[in-house]
Write a structure and sequence with these properties.
54% of the residues lie in helices and 10% in strands. Helix 12 crosses helix 13. Among the domains are: 79 residues, no CATH class; 33 residues. It is mainly alpha-helical and 624 residues long. It has 24 helices and 17 strands. A hairpin with a 4-residue loop joins strand 7 and strand 8. The strands form 7 sheets. It has a 3-stranded antiparallel sheet with strand order 6-7-8, with helices on one face. The protein has a 3-stranded antiparallel sheet with strand order 9-10-11. This is DUF7745 domain-containing protein. It comes from Pisum sativum (Garden pea). It holds the Pfam family DUF7745. Keywords: Coiled coil.
Length: 624
């Protein structure tokens, strides 16, 4: 307590007369030892009187004895120990539906299938299995700064970003118009295709619930179990991912996957909607308390990823409350840019908006990426411009359709900045920004009492002077480093010269070899072209031979068919001839039986004679 009081006192003096801050040693009985350099503290009292207190580390008495108690100093310390006012806190609830059945289905995804599942749908199985601890989230929301859309702490600010959510979820951000609203008319064919169901199954089970329409969880659970038993893993994965979207990522009604979640699942660009649902849920409940409905596992994972993963912060889990541990953190303790992926491009604006407007499942709100650059590894150079952090969007979804359309148009022109604009990657904040945050804390107030930092902090500002022996030592070290740098430069120059000489020799040795290699290369190319031509000709001949073989086989088949047909006709003709021959024989036999010799007739003989006579009377030319 005394140490914090002295720090407050020194800060007070610095604000009055710009006295440099230093690091103190032991503190007790309103006295302290100054360990670094000579320090002059000038205290200004309410009555206008001033006194000076000089501390000299060269004075051995100062190192062995505490400074004598000074009444005026005690009065000022007493003023500094007045309790700091705190902001009002609210109680929030973070209810989640039981996920036992869904987790059991998720466990059916084998390790061999996991990579493909994550590549297609993102790391949503991790979010499904994440146990949401309400205490860190309860603590985080007490620091919410509604005007700036961020969380403001003692000397730093945190705010989730599109890039961070994309990395944590394992889903890239598509620079296109994100989800705006559910279609006015339900297209059951698109939904059935996405969920690998029949249109009839979707139509029969599509139901309303609490003002929204969608599919019951129990229906999809039953269908997914059947697909898993049949080992239709592609269908099973799609249905499992859709259920996680509706229950974990975009929760709406208990045990229900609404139309909005299904539409976002089909669109394949969930990151902007996840971020806006987080901001809108927190902002709409700020100062009121109540239930926070958004993707809680993702918000918790984001917050934990920025906190220290080892050291005193983790060692005091069982001895200090979450509020105390968070209040002990400074900007020096935060794990800036703690993600595996290196962020190079940052979405900073959209269309005519100087910040980023977002459309969620419930409402619309903007967020300010300029406050989160340090989280992405960039320098925060100073306080942001008013236009960059001004509230540009905040309304319930159905209350302003014109504004909703304007946001959709703005997302067609995404403003992305990279290192050429944001500067080199160096996760620090300049004093102008830090001072601005501290002044904002004085206005906004903190929700809990300040705590001593658990981890050792670096000195804020160095002293004006250093001991002579330290200066001489630093001077000698600087001279030694300069000499070493000169030697290194000379070695580098020699190495470059040797390299050039060796390269020249190599070119001379390889001169003839290069021309020979070029000629060989040409001959190789010619041979390769010839081989290619022969290969093409061979392929053509093989194709022609195959065609001819096919034609021959077709002709042989036709000849065989024709021979069979002729044989059938010959057999039929032979049968017919045999039958007709038998009939002829039978007719001849019958004819022989019926033929009788003609009786002799005198009249016939007479007529024949008359005919012969008449024939003699007719001229021969007439007969011919």
């Amino acid at each position: 307590m005394i140490s914090r009081t002295v720090q407050t006192l020194v800060g007070y003096c610095r604000c009055i007369l710009q006295v440099p801050l230093v690091t103190f040693g032991s503190v007790g009985d309103f006295g302290f030892r100054q360990q670094l350099s000579q320090l002059t503290l000038v205290f200004k009292l309410d009555l206008g009187s001033e006194f000076r207190l000089k501390l000299r580390p060269s004075d051995q008495r100062l190192h062995n004895q505490p400074v004598q108690y000074i009444p005026e100093l005690g009065s000022l310390i007493k003023m500094a120990t007045v309790p700091e006012p705190k902001r009002k806190t609210c109680s929030y609830s973070f209810h989640r539906e039981p996920l036992t059945s869904l987790i059991e289905l998720g466990s059916l995804v084998t390790s061999d299938q996991l990579k493909g599942f994550v590549g297609q749908f993102g790391d949503i199985l991790t979010l499904l299995k994440t146990v949401v601890d309400p205490v860190p989230l309860q603590t985080l929301l007490q620091f919410h700064d509604p005007e700036l859309r961020c969380f403001t702490f003692q000397d730093y600010q945190l705010a989730p970003t599109l890039e961070e959510y994309s990395i944590l979820l394992g889903v890239p951000i598509q620079h296109q118009v994100p989800f705006l609203d559910v279609p006015k008319e339900v297209d059951f064919r698109i939904i059935a295709r996405a969920l690998r169901l029949s249109v009839k199954e979707v139509c029969d089970n599509w139901k309303p619930s609490g003002g929204v329409a969608g599919l019951p969880l129990k229906f999809l659970l039953r269908i997914a179990r059947d697909e898993a038993e049949k080992e239709n893993w592609e269908v099973f994965h799609a249905q499992l991912a859709a259920m996680i979207y509706g229950i974990v990522l975009f929760p709406s009604m208990p045990n229900f996957i609404d139309h909005a979640a299904i539409s976002i699942f089909i669109g394949g660009n969930p990151v902007p909607t996840l971020l806006v649902d987080t901001y809108y849920a927190i902002h709409s409940r700020h100062g009121k308390g109540g239930a926070i409905r958004c993707c809680l596992p993702l918000l918790l994972r984001w917050f934990i990823s920025l906190l220290p993963a080892s050291g005193p912060f983790m060692d005091t889990q069982s001895t200090l409350k979450w509020t105390q541990r968070v209040m002990s953190l400074t900007s020096y303790d935060i794990r800036w840019q703690s993600y595996r992926m290196d962020v190079r491009n940052v979405i900073m604006s959209c269309g005519e908006f100087r910040n980023v407007p977002l459309v969620g499942t419930k409402g619309c709100i903007n967020y300010n990426p300029v406050l989160s650059l340090r989280q992405l590894g960039f320098v925060i150079k100073g306080r942001p411009l008013e236009a960059e952090v001004a509230e540009s969007v905040y309304f319930e979804k159905q209350s302003d359709l014109t504004r909703l359309e304007q946001i959709g148009t703005a997302w067609r022109s995404v403003g992305v900045k990279d290192g050429s604009v944001l500067g080199k990657k160096f996760a620090i904040a300049m004093p102008n920004y830090t001072d601005w945050v501290k002044k904002r804390v004085e206005t906004l107030l903190l929700p809990y009492d300040r705590m001593e930092p658990l981890q050792e902090q670096p000195p804020l500002v160095l002293a004006d002077s250093v001991p002579a022996e330290h200066y001489k030592q630093a001077l000698m070290e600087s001279r030694r480093l300069r000499e070493k740098e000169q030697d290194t430069q000379m070695e580098l120059y020699k190495a470059k010269a040797d390299r050039l000489h060796l390269a020249h020799q190599l070119r001379e040795v390889q001169g003839e070899d290069a021309s020979r290699a070029r000629s060989k290369k040409r001959s190789y190319e010619e041979m390769e072209s010839m081989l290619d031509a022969e290969h093409r000709e061979c392929s053509r001949l093989q194709k022609a031979e195959a065609n001819y073989q096919k034609k021959i086989r077709d002709l042989e088949k036709k000849l065989r068919d024709k021979d069979i047909q002729l044989k059938k006709e010959i057999d039929l003709r032979q049968t017919s001839e045999d039958y007709l021959g038998g009939e002829v024989l039978e007719l001849r036999r019958q004819l022989k039986e019926k033929i009788t010799p003609l009786p002799e007739c005198s009249e016939c003989t007479l007529l024949i004679d008359q005919c012969h006579y008449l024939k003699t009377l007719i001229p021969e030319d007439r007969l011919s």
